[in-house]
């Protein structure tokens, strides 16, 4: 486990509106770029946050989250970045959904579940945790090993 750096925690609070997803993505791009992550890691982290944020707005808040919040907290250590995304939607762990079958034909595939599937592909670890009465998705991105 790497050492956490001084002033390594950053926070952003946004309203639960779809228009705010760009600010969430820009925040993650800034944090990962400033931390020296490579372009692929920056892009994957941004996509993961965009997917989780969009899911909260669409499924958790049902597009009625203007008066609700989504908090994004990043914590940087020498070997990884931890991104926590907290919301006030009804308690729900999206990681319990059945994973879609990428080998199924397009005709046999069900519509949902792909976002979480891709988040799991992009990030090194994805967890769900309750913080009081708030949902929290915790994403981890390891620093690429320098060659």
What would your notes on this structure say?
- The chain is of the alpha+beta class and about 150 residues long.
- Helix content is about 30%, strand content about 35%.
- The chain is built from three helices and five strands.
- A five-stranded antiparallel beta sheet has the order 1-2-3-5-4.
- Helix 2 runs antiparallel to helix 3.
- The protein is globular, with a radius of gyration of 15 Å.
Largest sheet features: 5 strands, antiparallel
Mean pLDDT: 89
Strand proportion, as a percent range, falls in 25-35%
- Form type: globular
Listing every helix as H and every strand as E from the N terminus to the C terminus, the arrangement reads EHHEEHEE
Structural class given helices, strands, pairing?
Answer: alpha+beta
Identify low-pLDDT runs.
none
Roughly how much helix do the residues carry, as a percent range? 25-40%
Number of helices: 3
Rg for CA atoms: 15 Å
Q: What order do the strands of the largest sheet run in, or round the barrel if closed?
A: 1-2-3-5-4
Oligomer: single chain
Secondary structure layout plus pairing:
Layout lengths: L3 E13 L4 H14 L4 H22 L4 E13 L2 E8 L26 H9 L2 E7 L2 E9 L5
Antiparallel strand pairs: 1-2, 2-3, 3-5, 4-5
Helix pairs in contact: 1-2, 2-3
Entry summary:
With 147 residues, the protein is α+β, with helices and mostly antiparallel strands. The chain is built from 3 helices and 5 strands; from the N terminus they run E-H-H-E-E-H-E-E.
Main attributes?
alpha+beta; globular
């Amino acid at each position: 486990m790497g050492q956490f750096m001084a002033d390594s925690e950053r926070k952003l609070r946004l309203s639960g509106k779809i228009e705010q997803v760009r600010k969430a993505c820009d925040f993650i791009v800034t944090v990962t770029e400033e931390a020296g992550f490579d372009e692929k890691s920056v892009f994957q982290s941004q996509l993961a946050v965009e997917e989780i944020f969009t899911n909260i707005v669409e499924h958790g808040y049902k597009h009625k989250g203007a008066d609700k919040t989504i908090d994004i907290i990043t914590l940087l250590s020498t070997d990884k970045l931890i991104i926590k995304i907290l919301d006030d939607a009804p308690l729900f762990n999206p990681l319990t959904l059945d994973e879609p079958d990428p080998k199924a034909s397009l005709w046999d595939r069900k519509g949902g579940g792909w976002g979480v599937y891709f988040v799991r592909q992009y990030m090194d670890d994805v967890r769900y945790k309750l913080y009081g009465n708030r949902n929290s998705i915790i994403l981890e991105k390891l620093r690429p090993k320098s060659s």
